[in-house]
Amino acid sequence: LLNRAAEKSSLGFQQEYKSKYGMLVTEWRVLFHLGHYGDMTAIDICKKGDLHKTKVSRAVTGLQKKRFLERETMRDDKRFEVLSLTSKGRLVFEDLISKARDYNATLTAPFTQSETDFLFKALRRIKQNS
Description:
With 130 residues, the protein is mainly alpha-helical. The protein is built from six helices and two strands, in the order ααααββαα. Strands 1-2 form a two-stranded antiparallel ribbon.
């Protein structure tokens, strides 16, 4: 049931980033992490977002082609790159995060505030325990 609800809500929001910006789900997740947490490496995004490195690598390439992010080789360790949003990427993030907030509000509209609080508390606990 949880998996089906997650899939349905994900597909609903997918229309926002796919139709307007041509992004795939992993691209949106990478963009979100960079916009929310700031500059980071692909490995950091994998860990923070529970994402597979191959999918993140493809998403980074796609976002770079769209000019939403840029890469800079780390000075201390040339094997790694720091990823950051471009000004265009920052604008896309701001637009989508606003739409995500609206979408979350629509999803939780049928619930009371107490039910919404419980839902998010339960989801955080599931995430921590899995």
